Amino acid sequence: MKTIIKVYLTTKRARIFTALILTGFLSIGSNFTLIKNATAAPGNLMPESTNEFIKENLRTNNLPRRVKAAVLQDASKRSQISLKELEIVESTPRTWNNGCLGVSQPDEICTQALVPGWKVVVSDGKQKWVYHTNSNGRLLRIASTQTGRNSETKLPESLKNAVFQAASQRLNLPISQLNIVQVKQRTWNNNCLNLPRPDEVCTQAIANGWKVVVGAVDQSLVYHTNASGSALRLNEKNSEIADNGITPITIPTSELPPALNKNVIFRQISNGGLFARTYETVLLNDGHLMRYQMGDANDSKRQVWQVSPEQMRQFQRLLEKNKLSEYQNLNYPATKGSGDYITYTVTTKEGTIQYNDVSQWDLPKDLQTVVKAWNDIRNIAIANQIPDEIKPLPIPLRELPPQLDRNVVFRQIYSGGLIGKTYETILLSDGRLMQYSIGDANDSERRVWQVSKQKVREFQQLLKDHRFRELENLSYPATKGSADYITYTLTSDDTTVRYNDVSQNNLPKNLQAVVKAWNQIRKTYQ
To answer: Contact, 62 vs 91, CB < 8 A?
Structure first.
């Protein structure tokens, strides 16, 4: 980690433009994220006859082995049924219309992108589960389930509610994220429902009841109940409950990354994995999501996307709700023996947290919520990325113009075009608007106009309202092949932005508003 931060600091010194970044190895990192987000919400359709069963079975020949294994493993884990008793009876190639594979949870943000994959049906001969998967089985979700003889509909409503309430409290999850995976009528041989507690004396009497399996994300709870549900007990031995007891350690001060710049909301540094590369991804106040490979002297791997205003508001509200101050400067380490894992170092205004793709599902619930929302917002932005021609780039330090004199409110430098001359126009705090030709030794083209002080104050307020300072030293280049275009360099306070007459219609909306207001002042008074 020390080496990483050294590289980070070295890279930062070489850049005037801060905070821009990259979430790391999406091909690896997001796959780890997605498989863990697989949600079980069961489903089924039974063959009407033996012939139909054989026909369906023939459809599974082209299913990749990895997808088959992943589906069977998940079905066995959630239903508590041996792999030997499960069989894939149907598989069909499908293209899902979003990253949730057509099976979204309440309030879940799904990547709006086409995902090739499979619809797979698993059966134990009595019930069926319908799975949606991606092409390699790393992402899978149960779309629906039905049972034959032991249908969930036979379970008394009061008993079902009692089981859901108990599971919701145990897993700290809303009932909307739980589902009944399996129901079986059972006869217990004592009033302890075959689950005696230490030092408990059980009455040896026959008790009719149910065995109910409740499914959740990567977890399943097995309950024994009496006939009405007034008595129920958790079979912890047969349940699969995530261990959230991972012990965090403090990140050494020497290994902490720098604090966020004022225009950055969230930052993630990822390193490790098979290729041991380090990437940084940052989310800016204006919705730009940027990532780059640290140590890349040519900055050739930089990528920029745009997050919608609504998604920005949702993510900021989530950060406020799930305050991470109590996890400040904590590291949730990987389990012993783990190898080739990816380490993530995330930073908000409240501090830095470190975890990895091995430990991320053992994080505290509110921290998991933030991580999942971050992955969702990143995936959605990538799926709707900005066209190449309007991706901003940092202005090289050597190309930045001088800072403004203290009595100058705004400056525009105009160069290029067919004439090839360079002009500078400045707005002074006293309302004078001045234009002259750079390189004109006699200053023969200087012109001066007077803008009302009210207009100056309005323009200064507009610069604040549209967060001009947050566009810190960015250049919006012309599209490839463009020629004879005019380049505009705008400066206010300590911030410079560069664009041209080819790219100006593709600028961010706040920058477009500033450009429009400035042009109106010039046209009105010149």
So the answer is: yes
Over 80: is that where the pLDDT of 400 sits? Answer: yes
Q: Degrees (nearest 5) of the Cα angle 16, 20, 25? A: 140
Bridge partner residues of 462 (DSSP): none
Q: Give yes or no for a contact between 59 and 95, defined as CB atoms under 8 angstroms apart.
A: no
Domain annotation covers residue 468: yes
Q: What is the model's pLDDT at position 456?
A: 92
| Residue in this structure with the two tokens 């190895």, named with its chain if needed | 25
pLDDT at 297 over 80: no
Sequential DSSP letters for 134-179: ESSSSSEEEEEEEESTT-GGGS-HHHHHHHHHHHHHHHT--GGG-E
> What are the residues whose beta carbons fall under 8 Å from the beta carbon of 170, sequence distance 6 or more?
221, 234, 241
90 with 197, same domain: the answer is: no
Identify the residue whose tokens are 């350690």.
249
Residue 310: in which H helix or E strand, if any?
Answer: helix 309-321
Same domain? For 274 and 398 the reply is: no
Specify if 27 maps to a domain: yes
Domain interval for residue 208: 152-234
What DSSP assignment string belongs to 94-129? EEESSTTTT-PPTT-----S-EEEEEEEEE-SSEEE
Q: CB count, 10 Å around CB of 99? A: 25
> What digits encode the pLDDT tens for the residues 379-398?
887 766 555 446 788 888 88
25-39, 48-62, 134-148, 374-388: least confident range: 25-39
Chosen domain end from 86, 119, 147:
147
- Quick check: 410 pLDDT over 90? yes
Measured CA to CA, the distance from residue 223 to residue 390 in angstroms comes to 57
Pair 140, 162 in one domain: no
pLDDT band at residue 22, thresholds of 50, 70 and 90? Answer: very low
419 and 307 fall within a common domain: no
| Angle formed at CA 464 by CA 458 and CA 467, multiple of 5 degrees | 140
What total number of domains does the chain contain? 4
176-234: pLDDT as tens digits:
778 787 788 888 888 899 888 777 788 888 888 888 888 775 577 889 999 888 888 98
User: Is the domain of 374 the same as that of 415?
Assistant: no
Q: Compute the distance between CA of residue 330 and CA of residue 354 in angstroms, rounded to an integer.
A: 6
Of 126, 147, 168, which closes a domain?
Answer: 147
pLDDT above 50 (res 421): yes
Pair type for strands 432-437 and 288-293: unpaired
pLDDT > 60? residue 363: yes
- Domain of residue 408, CATH code: 3.30.1560
Inter-residue contact 466 to 458 (CB < 8 Å): no
